[in-house]
Amino acid sequence: MCGSVGDVDVATRDRWLEHAASRMTAAGLRTGAARSAVVELLAREGQCLLSAAEISDRLRTGSTGSTASVYRVLDELSELGLVHRLDGRDGVARFEIADPEHHHHHLVDDVTGEVRSFADDDLERAIAAVALRHGFRLSGHDVVLRGTAEAG
């Protein structure tokens, strides 16, 4: 399930890989085969939202660990802020890279399950203004709009 913000270019992918390696090293995580495979796959897929099962299926052609290993790695990456997790109405969590330089949000169609990514400067300013008005220092935010897409 790929978003519409666009594919991640090589420079962004490489920057995210360096950022991920740095964060994992700082957290004391070793670079094992399963962790490396998941990180590299997510970097290649960019803004595609993938479930743990989809990631595991794509990695099965190589020599990586079990689906349980994929879940564990995704949990670690999420804790480190390296991936965004989007919980679908179908009960399936999907993941994409969290590019520290390009923030976006998601539109989720309740009927089809389609997920579209979007960026909106006005929304970002409004969120910052709300935080400021309430004396709240933001460390991050996620916006997921759910509804149905208009035909046409």
UniProtKB/TrEMBL annotation:
GO terms for biological process: negative regulation of DNA-templated transcription; regulation of secondary metabolite biosynthetic process. Keywords: Cytoplasm, DNA-binding, Metal-binding, Repressor, Transcription, Transcription regulation, Zinc. Its main location: cytoplasm. Pfam families: FUR (PF01475). It is found in: Cytoplasm. SUPFAM superfamilies: Winged helix' DNA-binding domain. GO terms for cellular component: cytosol. GO terms for molecular function: DNA-binding transcription factor activity; transcription cis-regulatory region binding; zinc ion binding. Gene3D superfamilies: 3.30.1490.190, Winged helix-like DNA-binding domain superfamily/Winged helix DNA-binding domain. PANTHER family: FERRIC UPTAKE REGULATION PROTEIN, ZINC UPTAKE REGULATION PROTEIN. Belongs to the Fur family. Homodimer. This is Unannotated protein.
